[in-house]
Design a protein that fits this description.
Low-confidence stretches of chain B: none
Low-confidence stretches of chain A: none
Shape of chain A: globular
Shape of chain B: globular
Strand content of chain B: 5-15%
Strand content of chain A: 5-15%
Largest sheet of chain A: 4 strands, antiparallel
Mean pLDDT of chain A: 94
Helix content of chain B: 40-55%
Structural class of chain A: alpha+beta
Order of helices and strands of chain A: HHHHHHEEEEEEEHHEEHHHH
Number of helices of chain B: 11
Oligomer: heterodimer
Strand order of the largest sheet of chain A: 2-3-7-6
Helix content of chain A: 40-55%
Order of helices and strands of chain B: HHHHHHEEEEEEEHEEHHHH
Chain lengths: 401, 364
Amino acid sequence: MSDLTAYRAKAAAWLESMVPTYGKDARKGLSVEEDLAVARKYQRAKFDAGYAGINWPTEYGGQGLGHLEKVTFDTEEMKHGFPAFYFGISLGMPIPVLMQFGGDKEFVKERVLKALKGEEIWCQLFSEPSGGSDLAGLRTKAEVDGNGWKINGQKIWTSWAQYCDYGVIVVRTDPNVPKHKGLTYFWVDMKAPGVTVVPIKLVGGDSHVNEVFFDDVKITDDHRMSPVGGGFAVAIATLMIERYVATDSAGFGPHLDLFVDLAKDTELNGKPAIADGRIRQQIARNYAMRNGLQSITARAMAMMQAGMVPGPEGSLNKLVAVRSRQKLSELAIDLQGSDGFHYDDHASQKENWTSSWINAPTGRIAGGSDETLLNTIAEKILGLPQDHRPDKGVPFNQIPA
Amino acid sequence: MSILYDEGQQAIATESRRVLEARVNKDELLPLLETTGKYHDGFWTTAKEQGWTALALPEAYGGLDLGLVELGLIAHQAGRSLSGAPFLTGSFGAAKAIELYGSDEQKAKYLPGLASGETIGAIAFASGSSALPVLPSVTVTDHQLNGTKTGVAGGLSADIAVVYANGPGMPVLVVADLANVTRNAIDSFDNSRLYADLVFDATPAETLVVGGAARDAALHILALQAVITAHEQTGGAEAMMEIARDYAVTRRAFGQVIGAFQSIKHRIAELYGFVELARANCIHAASREGQPDFITAAAAARISATEAYDTASRDCVQIHGGMGVTWELGLHLHTRRARSLAIEQGNLLFWEDILVDRLTGEAA
C-alpha cells in the first residue's frame, strides 16, 4: 500500500467516525447559526485530528504535508456533506495570503491558528457592484488618513461576511493611473466602526453572500499586505493559491446514479423511463463527460505524485461540470412531470434535483463565470488574443463609466 | 496500468508523429477521395516498417507484446495526420479475435502475417443499422459462409475477415479467407476507407467461438477497436482544434485577428474541452483492458471522442468561413473522417446503449 493510499484509508476512517456527529443527517433542521456552531466544533475536531492546514507549514499550525494529501482528504470529506463550507473561503484564500504577505509574524500566527481551529473566519472582499469579472475595475477607495488609511465604498457577493472576523480587501489607492496599477491590498477587521454587512437573499432562499459597506473605515498602515499600487499582483496570487483543489465531476450537484435511479422509478409512455432513448442518451453523454473529468483529475493526481506539474486541462472541471449539471437537473424535473413541482429550500443540491437546478446558475457565475473561464482557456492555454479592451492603459479616472 | 505515459510510450508518440507528418500530406490524400479501391501506400508501408502492425500482438507470433496504450498513441497521431488506410484498426481487431478465441493452429496460421502487415484483416460484424445484430443475416453452415455483409471497412483490400454470423440459430464468430469473395465497392464520402459489401457464397470459414460467448467475444473485439478508434478520433479533433486556432490568430477582419472575437475564441476554447475530455477518456479506457469495467470505459471513450471529432471538424470549418468549404484546403478530409470513424465499430447510438445497459445493471 502506498503512503497516499494509507493516508486516504486513515482519513476515510476518521471521517466516517465523524458522520454521526457532523454529517448532514445529524444537522438536519438546524438554523444557519446553529449549524455554524456545529461547524466550528467540526473544524476544531479536524484540527485536533491533524486534518486542518494539511499542506501548510508546521510553524503556522499546519501539518507540513503536500497538495496530494490535502486534495485526498478533501475528496474523501466531500462524500459526506460535512459543514466545511463555512471555512472554505477563509482557509482557501485569505489565510494562505496572510501567511505569505502578512507583516507582523506573531499576529499572523495567532490569526492562522484561530482560523484553523474554526474560532475565526476570514472573508475575501474583491467583487464590487461595478465589476466582478473585471476585478481591476473596482471603485472602493482608500485614501491616506494621517499615518493610516480611510476606506470608503462597497463590496458585494462576499461569502459568509456576516459571520466573519476579518477580511482581505483590494481597494483603489490611486485613480490617476491605469486601473491595474492603482490598487492596494489590505486586511480589515470586519467588526471595525463603519463596516456594515447586509446579507443578500439568493434565489435558492439562502443568504450566504453579502453586501459590505465601508464608511470612513480607518485602518493603520500595518494592515497593508502589498506595496502601495501593487495590490493587483497579490490579488492574482490569492486566486492562484487554490490551483489544485478537490473537484467534483457532478458539478456540486447530484451523482449520476441518482438520475439513473429516478429514470428506473419513473414511468414514461407506460414503460420505465430508463428504456427511453432520450433519457438513455443523456445518461450516456453525462457519464462520458464525468468520466473524462474524473480521468483528468486522476491523471493530475498521478502527475503530482510523480513530482510533475499537472496540465492545464484541470481548469475544465467547473466549466464543464456545472453547466451539464444544470441541464441534467432540468431534465430530472421534467421527468417527474406534475410530481416535479415540489420545492424544499433546505434540500441539498447534491441530493435534490430541484435544489440542484435552482442553485446551478450560482455555480456558473461564482469563482469565474463560464465566459471568463473560456477566455482564460483561450488566452492562457491556446494563445488566442485578449478581447478588445478600451480601458487598457487609460488612467482609471478617465475610463468612461 | 498507469494512466501516465512512460518514456517509451512518449517516444512512440513523438516518433510516430514525426514520421507521419513527413510522409502523409493532404495533396496525396485528396485524390483518394475521388476513386474507389485506393489507399495511401506510404501510410501502410510506414505502419509495417515501423512495426505498428505488430505492436499489440503476442511476441510468440511476431508481435511486440505491447497493448492498447501504445497502439492508441499511434492511432492518435494517425488521426492527426489522417491515416491513409483503415488497416491498423481492422487488422488489430481481426488479430485480437484470433489471438483471444482461436486455436493454436489458427494463431500460427494467421497471426504472423497480421503482425508483419503482409496479411490485411477486417472485421465484419455489423448489419446495416446494427453494429452487433441479435442474429446476423450472414449464415454459416458446414463451415461455409453465405450472405452479404455491408459496409465493411477495408473490405476492398482485406485478405481475411473475422465475421459475426448466424450459426444457424445462434451467433458464431468465424475467420473467412476473402480470396474468392465478391467485393462490391461502395462509392463513399471517404473512399480510402475501402468500404465494400462482401458477398459470401459458400466461402470457407473457420470457427472461432460459438453461441452466447460469440456475442461477448464480438463485443469485446469491438470495444478493443473502439478504444483505438477513439484515440484516432481524438487526434483528428486535436488537429482540427489547432488548425482553427492557427487560422484565428492570423486571419484578420474588422481591423483585428478574428481570434479576438469571443464568438470565435470561445468556440475554440470549447473545442479544447471536447478534446481533453476525449483524451482523458481514451487514456483511461486503454488502461482498463482486462478489467471488469473495460467495456464501460471503452464506450465512454468512444462517445466523447465521436462528439469531439464531429464538433471540432464542424466548428473548424465554420471558423474558416468560405475557405473552409474549398476542396483545396482539405478540411473536409477531417470532416469526412469524423463521420466515417463515427460509424465504424458501432455508432454513438450503439455505444450509448451499451454504456447505459452497464450503468443500469441490464447487461451481464
